[in-house]
């Protein structure tokens, strides 16, 4: 079997994991890694039995595709030559630092018929995959994504750094467009927003609340969905998925609760039966499969089979368009100045 020839551009905190995984895939030849920092590039290359290149242009003629894991502001500059030559690109999220650049990259990939996949890795999280199967028609979705300040991705704010993951998940779950956006945020360390909260109203009627912060002492990634099937929630870190729904009798006749209360000498005792008798509760542990490995396997399979990846350039642009609407509507409380300003004034 002919191996797919790939390279990784940018082997920092995340890119080195791409290189590690690719070096262990039997149907992939890791042609090289690219990093402007020679010591870092050589270290990763030697560790995974490949070559170090100082510039992406040097590796371009040698590969079928590339994983781009450089700072977000460099995404367009690095990816453009690969897409222009028709080579496949897996771009770490977000697709670009602004919507215009994201649109240009997507249109270029279409014009050159070059595969463009974007690293919204949570789509491959086994807990989210399990959650999807348990959700009917979403009515209300709440996503919370918190992390400590890592001093990485400081070229973008928390909307493009963290919230973009949940925007993509919501678009995938609802399959509908955003009708309206209300948003608020805060700048603590800066220069971009470090906390953001947004309420989205979807064309399907669902209401979505998103909160993202990189000022939390501990990491948290949760998705909760109330749908016509009941409730389902996933902890994307522990990979535990919990669901509950009314029992058949309650579902058929919600008003029966009044008869139950009237027939019970001490109604306070009923609360102990809620999740045993009246509401069915189920807790499942999703597999421990590595999401990044699954994402890379999808990329390799898409190249080999000429098919659409699970998260395409079009999907990433859709998430970027929503993120742009959040940013445009974002008012930020600055802890430094103590003032509240519209984002447009703050950026200008």
Quick overview of this protein structure:
With 348 residues, the chain is α/β, with parallel strands linked by helices. It is built from 13 helices and 16 strands. The radius of gyration is 23 Å and the shape is globular.
Q: Biggest sheet, open or closed, and with what strands and sense? A: 10 strands, mixed
For the biggest β-sheet, the strand order reads 14-13-12-11-7-10-9-8-15-16
Gyration radius (Cα, Å) is 23 Å
Number of helices: 13
State the oligomer: single chain
Distance between the termini: 54 Å
CATH architecture of the domain at 4-122 and 291-313: 3-Layer(aba) Sandwich
> What is the helix content?
25-40%
Strand fraction equals: 25-35%
What is the residue-averaged pLDDT? 92
Shape: globular
Describe this structure in words.
The structure is a single chain. The chain is of the alpha/beta class and 348 residues long. Among the domains are: 4-122 and 291-313, NAD(P)-binding Rossmann-like Domain (Rossmann fold), CATH 3.40.50.720; 240-285, no CATH class. 36% of the residues lie in helices and 28% in strands. It has 13 helices and 16 strands. The chain has a 10-stranded mixed sheet. It has a 6-stranded parallel sheet with strand order 3-2-1-4-5-6, sandwiched between helices. Strand 2 (28-34), helix 2 (38-47) and strand 3 form a beta-alpha-beta unit. Helix 4 runs parallel beside helix 5 (99-111), helix 5 packs antiparallel against helix 12 (313-328) and helix 7 (158-174) packs across helix 12. The protein is globular, with a radius of gyration of 23 Å. Residues 344-348 have low confidence and may be disordered.
